[in-house]
Write a structure and sequence with these properties.
102 residues, mainly alpha, 6 helices, 0% strand
């Protein structure tokens, strides 16, 4: 979660720190009840990279963005509904931020 820890892990593992940050953010999004790996990939494709991004999103706008990107990328056979997204956004707003962005 911390930048200094990702830097040390990057050095030890050979995995770039930026890639480790992406993985940490994906794992962080999985803390939201009802969100699985497919939804995380759909969020990323729609521009939502973190729980903070999700918490700041508007349900209607995110629904449209997800529908548009899923139409092209075909990530999910069953994209989330606006009420599902509203619930996930509300959950994201309540989560403590644990992943440092740097």
């Amino acid at each position: 979660a911390k930048a200094k820890d990702r830097k040390a892990l990057a050095k030890a593992s050979g995995i770039p720190a930026a890639e480790l940050l992406t993985l940490a953010r994906r794992c962080d999004l999985l803390r939201i009840k009802g969100v699985g790996s497919e939804m995380v990939l759909l969020f990323e494709a729609a521009g939502v990279k973190s729980t903070a991004d999700l918490g700041a999103a508007a349900p209607a706008a995110l629904t449209t963005a997800i529908e548009n990107v899923n139409h092209t990328a075909k990530i999910s056979e069953k994209p989330p509904t606006e009420p599902q997204l509203a619930d996930w956004i509300a959950q994201a707003k309540k989560l403590p931020q644990v992943v440092e962005s740097k």
